[in-house]
Automatic annotation (TrEMBL), chains A, B:
Family: Belongs to the class IV-like SAM-binding methyltransferase superfamily. RNA methyltransferase TrmH family.
InterPro entries: Alpha/beta_knot_MTases (IPR029028), MRM3-like_sub_bind (IPR053888), Ribosomal_eL30-like_sf (IPR029064), rRNA_Methyltransferase (IPR051259), SpoU_MeTrfase (IPR001537), SpoU_subst-bd (IPR013123), tRNA_m1G_MTases_N (IPR029026)
Methyltransferase among keywords: yes
Name of the molecule in the record: RNA methyltransferase, TrmH family
Keywords associated with the record: Methyltransferase, Transferase
Length: 265, 265
């Protein structure tokens, strides 16, 4: 018999939609075949896989991969799946995963040449999008610093489109400590801010983007904290050629990260 | 007495939340002080301004600018404002505006060096964000082509963060006609697509981005129609250095438009 919304294991998994429960258990939910596939591709990440009979049949390769890794695979009713999923069309699969963040030290020890630091970014969609863009630009680590959103928030996981499982994710309360550690690891620290005194194009022209770099991004609503931006090696603005007053966070991060990626090659 | 949600002019304005009504009347709603300020900065754009007494007092400069342009300014109750606005915190102001799109011919006659074509982009948030990014990158025109979202959709207007009022906006049903007209106006046409055979970095390296350019962007869900991409001068992919399978639309558009902006300077 498939599990229903009232089956204790479904009830327990559903609690992971709340941050407190994720923090307490060190687990989170990944929904949809793409995320489940990425999660299964990492050793010891998936704890349990729930699927409707139709989805477990349609994605038999994923069900087999889970079983092959000794991950329990449980059939659930459509209602139970809907209760576990946060989207309207969850495509029948939800995995319970272990937190996968690494320490700041471990992330920097692998000597990434490009790092994104999300300082106090509260919007999960924005954070997940920047995580995805950082992965695409070749960043080795994405650091959620200060009062940032939980990277395991369902919307952040979905917006990352799998990239949560690709890069070293770090959670670090103290943004100033992140800057110090990044600098000690040989990274230049550039703060992306609309009020920056340096123009991104100038940094590209004079070769300063070629160096291993940690980019600091702040929240769309509040920007980067003054003292954090002040502590960076440069405060950099994306040039505004037209009449827009600013770029949104995802666009600004894409332009900065890709400028570094291009300069570093 | 301030207008209530039942006052006929409020009822009529509220109908503009529906596309059919916008199409029939050639009018749309812009909410919040930033959008209202941008709208008022254009001649003959604002038809009527509604505001709560507190907002008309707090933004007395906007109320005065409207009155100075012979735009009727009407006090409304908080309930009426909430009915007119589509956001939770509309900051007390909503303007009824005239459609401001121009013909394809007029937009190209001003010889823009950078143009964004949104081909069949249905998501209003995505469309508005790309419009904002195109403005920031210095694009002179943004063309909504094919079965694209209505640029006057409330979410598109808000996501554009004022840029709807800055660039030449064009609505054109036939995307193939847009390509032909752009080419006739001396623009290279580059299709941004994850499957493109050319790498954006290579176009930058060999100087092909220096030419006046129209960038074609498709919807995040469906991409660019095959025949439209095939008709472009080049099909261009943003390089993926990490393990992400793709970029989201806003990020890809930002990287492409800024690559052109940088090359053209």
């Amino acid at each position: 018999m498939p599990f229903t919304p009232r089956t204790p294991r479904v009830v327990a998994a559903r609690r992971l939609q709340r941050r407190r429960e994720r923090d307490a258990t060190g687990r989170f939910l990944a929904e949809g075949p793409q995320a489940v596939r990425e999660a299964l591709s990492r050793p010891r990440t998936v704890v349990e896989l729930f699927g409707t009979p139709a989805a477990l049949d349609g994605y038999a390769d994923l069900a087999a991969a889970a079983a092959g890794a000794d991950v329990p695979v449980s059939e659930v009713t459509d209602d139970a799946l809907a209760a576990l999923a946060e989207t309207v069309a969850p495509q029948g699969l939800v995995a319970v995963c272990r937190h996968l963040d690494v320490s700041l030290e471990a992330a920097l020890a692998s000597r990434p040449r490009l790092v994104a630091v999300l300082a106090g970014i509260r919007d999960p969609g924005n954070a997940g999008t920047v995580l995805r863009t950082a992965d695409a630009a070749g960043a080795g680590a994405v650091i959620f610093a200060g009062e940032a959103v939980d990277p395991y928030n369902g919307k952040c996981v979905r917006s990352s489109a799998g990239s949560l499982f690709h890069v070293d994710v770090v959670r670090e309360r103290d943004p100033a400590g992140v800057l110090a550690a990044a600098r000690a690891a040989g990274l230049a620290v550039f703060a992306a801010t609309g009020h920056g005194e340096e123009n991104l194009d100038d940094l590209a022209d004079d070769g300063r983007l070629r160096t291993p770099t940690a980019w600091l991004f702040g929240s769309e609503a509040h920007g980067l904290p003054e003292e954090l931006a002040g502590d960076a090696d440069a405060r950099v603005r994306v040039p505004l050629h037209g009449r827009a007053e600013s770029l949104n966070l995802a666009a600004a991060a894409a332009v900065c990260l890709y400028a570094s990626a291009r300069a570093q090659r």
